[in-house]
Amino acid sequence: MNELICNSKNETKSRWKYLLTASAMALLGYTGQAAAQSDEPQVWIELGGQLTRLDVGQETYSPDIMNARPSMFAPSTSYEKLPHQSVDETGKFTLRPQGSDWVFSAGVRYGRSVRKVDANQQTFPDPVYATLVSGTVESPFFYRGPLAGKFASTQINSSQTHMVLDFQAGKDVGLGLFGGSSQIDFGVRFAQFNNKTNITLASDPDWHRRYKYFSPFWLSLFPKLADVKPWGGEGYHNHYGNLQSHRSFRGIGPSLSWNGSSPFVGNSEDGQLIFDYGANAAVLFGRQRAQVSHHETENYHPITMGYGQKGQHVDTKVTGTSHTRSRSVIVPNVGGFAGMTYRIHQFKISAGYRADFFFNAMDGGNDARKSEKIGNYGPFATISIGLGG
After folding, report:
1. Phi, psi angles (nearest 5°) of residue 235
2. Is 246 helix (H, G, I), strand (E, B) or coil?
3. Following DSSP, what letter does each residue of 256-282 receive, concatenated?
4. Residue 25 φ then ψ, to 5°
5. Cβ contacts of residue 303 below 8 Å, gap of 6+?
6. Less crowded by CB within 10 Å, the N or C end of the chain?
7. Helix (H) or strand (E) holding 308
8. What region, left, alpha or beta, does residue 266 occupy, with left being phi > 0 and alpha being psi -120 to 50 degrees?
9. Rounded distance, CA 127 to CA 24, Å?
10. pLDDT digit string (tens) for 310-334?
11. Nearest CA to 272 among 262, 263, 283?
């Protein structure tokens, strides 16, 4: 009886072994068949660039003493702009496990740009001669010119950097708007923006004349020279202003994106054209910082005569202030893109237009906080290579 029970147990164990072995072989066979049938790469490596138009708001620097800047010159505020464009570098790594409709990706976009301005504006008055009259003959005497003219200068040195990192997991959810595939991705986005600005302004709103060769002594000998005035010089102002700022934002938060692709000509073996499109949104939690300092100097040079220019008294007035601000902010981010892709086998080349906007990200104020939007948009191009599959 005990032998019968043992034989029955052994037979049951053997059946389970045979069943598990057959199931494993079937599963392996199915996986191998699916791998053989699928020609989609498991890994895509993408490299590219974007010609980015930068849209960053920042308060202009226009101190009160510059209100006397000669109206004939362009205002300094017309030069006070951050860099307009940058050439961004982009990269993306995408992993699609074999036999799965899940996709995991990591992407980066980085850009840096610099803008320098050295604008000098001034007047160029004609030279003037004093003359002596002898009978009916007039002859030049003592060349006086040219007279010193009004001037205004603007010097600006600004730079900015930006970086956006994305880590996402996505799933193919079926057909897109025009057929093809559609994918929903969710994950985390990190963004960092920095800009530095150094602005120096200078102007002389007055004519100022200094003639070291003429004095009342010469006027007593040659009264005719008094027809050209003033002698010795006249009072004038010099205005100077300087602003230095460093502004930044760093934030991280959840992101959601939708990407679609619709093939419309050819196939991946012989060459295929694909219409790509997508939209993205994120909410970033971060900190907004601003360090701003500006100082203004007004010099007044009073009227002097002859050699009295040496050691003359100058009335000077200096004003200025510094601010350091830091604030936690919530930054909504929205964007989108559209483009075309040419694919043949495991190679893709794409081109299109992409836009990204970060609202209330930067403190663009000088003496008080002023939240500004950051916009990055422009044409892009990428090259992708598939591995595996």
Report:
1. -65, 150
2. strand
3. EEEEEEEEEEEETTTEEEEEEEEEEEE
4. -65, -40
5. 230, 232, 233, 234, 235
6. N
7. none
8. left
9. 102
10. 445 567 788 889 999 999 999 999 9
11. 263
pLDDT, one tens digit per residue, over 121-173 is 777 665 555 555 555 555 555 544 444 567 788 889 999 999 999 999 998 88
For the beta carbon of residue 379, count every other beta carbon within 10 angstroms: 14
The type of residue at 376 is N
Angle at CA 152, nearest 5°, toward 150 and 155?
160
Q: What is the DSSP string of 57-108?
A: -------GGGGGS-TTSPPGGGT-----EEEEEEEEEEE--TT-SEEEEEEE
The answer to whether the Cα torsion of 265, 93, 185, 257 is positive or negative is negative
Q: Can you give the pTM of this predicted structure? A: 0.74
Question: Rg of the Cα trace of the chain?
Answer: 37
Are 40 and 96 a contacting pair, CB within 8 Å?
Answer: yes
State the Cα–Cα distance between residues 323 and 295, nearest whole angstrom: 12
